[in-house]
Specification:
With 181 residues, this protein is an alpha/beta fold. The chain has two domains: 8-110; 113-180, no CATH class. The chain contains nine helices and five strands, in the order αβαβαβαββααααα. It has helices at residues 8-21, 32-38, 58-72, 91-94, 111-121, 124-135, 141-151, 155-158, 164-180, and strands spanning 26-31, 47-54, 75-78, 96-101, 104-108. A hairpin with a 2-residue loop joins β4 and β5 (104-108). The radius of gyration is 16 Å and the shape is globular.
């Protein structure tokens, strides 16, 4: 069943409703297109991507997310960069707190991790999102290079989805394109 496109109000509504419906405590990291929408780089996305760090009651979180999806008529996806690539050191410190609803703290996921995962995916929309992060000063090429060099050696042990050579090719292409302007 097709749901409505997700704009910033829907992302905010998701956070408020989830905080109201879910009684547990933890952190929710907004990622992907929903993060780009929240930051104002896009007007809408297809789904609210999120990662959860919930201490207990994960099944209760799933039920609450389902109820919020039905209430708001939006799609959600429990997905973030860590589902594709290992996250670089310091990702939690670089994640920006945005709101507390109920006992849930909501964050925008680390822009360096988001940028690396979008470069790895490599779609034109993903590349445009990373360019937006660069132009806004939320990431820089030096930080991306450093995080990339940290993550690549871990791919063999921590990622079934990413081919190192393909990721390296996409990353080098992105850096070259960004340096040329």
């Amino acid at each position: 069943m097709a749901r409505k496109p997700v704009g910033k109000a829907a992302v905010e509504g998701f956070m408020e409703e989830l905080g109201r419906r879910f009684r547990g405590a933890g952190r929710i990291y907004i990622a992907g297109g929903a993060e780009m929408v929240f930051l104002g780089f896009r007007s809408e996305t297809e789904a609210i991507d999120y990662s959860a760090d919930i201490h207990d009651e994960y099944g209760d979180l799933t039920a609450a997310v389902r109820a919020v999806m039905a209430h708001l008529d939006v799609s959600t996806e429990p997905a973030g960069p860590s589902d594709f690539i290992p996250l670089p050191a310091g990702w939690q410190d670089r994640s920006r707190f945005i709101a507390r609803h109920g006992r849930l703290d909501f964050f925008l996921l680390d822009p360096v991790s988001v940028a690396l995962s979008k470069i790895e995916r490599g779609s034109s929309r993903d590349v445009a999102d990373v360019q937006s992060l660069l132009q806004a000063g939320l990431v820089d090429l030096a930080a991306l290079q450093s995080a990339f060099e940290e993550v690549v050696p871990r791919l063999e042990r921590e990622s079934l989805r990413v081919d190192e050579q393909d990721f390296r090719r996409k990353f080098e292409s992105f850096v070259g394109m960004s340096e040329r302007g």
